[in-house]
Known about the structure:
Elements: H1 5-20, E1 30-35, E2 40-43, E3 59-62, E4 67-69, H2 78-87, E5 93-96, H3 100-108, H4 117-120, H5 135-156, E6 166-169, E7 173-178, H6 181-204, H7 213-224
Antiparallel strand pairs: 1-2, 1-5, 2-3, 3-4, 5-7, 6-7
Amino acid sequence: MSVYKNLREEAYEANMEIMRKSLAIYTWGNSSAFDPDKGVFAIKPSGVGYDQLTPDSMVLLDLNGNIIEGKLKPSSDTKTHLVLYKNFSHIRGVTHTHSTFAVAWAQAGKAVPVFGTTHADHGTEKIICTEFMSEEAVKNNYELETGNLIIDTFKKNNLDPAHSNMVLVAGHGPFTWGSSAAQSVYNSVVMEEICKMAYLTVTINPLAKSLPDHIIKKHWERKHGKNAYYGQE
């Protein structure tokens, strides 16, 4: 039995959740699970439909991009996941989807403002959108440079990836991360719903303004603050 059995199963379940939550169709999208103690992550194989996936079809790689276990080619987005694991040290899962509303904002090259309390419950910052990747970067190593673009965008905007756990890559789509593969997919679901609500908001009122800071702070702190009271003990 492989020592990576649990990691394979975690990655498999996360990828199946992408399908269950309708965040991608056919072979689009991918999720990975990372074990920092072993320095290994499991990821969806490239071009394999969700209905064909099994835990054993997950591909295991180290942080140098070497395949540790697996008979199939890993996701074409593997190097993006790798860059995120190397630079965002706290994360244990990464998800990339092609969900409709998040992709629409990415294609527009627009960040998603905090229009309401739904967004504020999950983050106090707008969902940042990167710049479009340069021609040189695309020619160099597209997937690796996608990861670098995300890292550079967070540094440029002084964002904490432990607090802001989602990003739009201009012209491409959303990436999310979390404390597990399951949490990264959860964040993708939340992101898609926020992007949908934001789209409807600007459709109804193109001049809509962001939620006032004091309301944003209240909603964040009642759920995540030192004296949070949302949920059960």
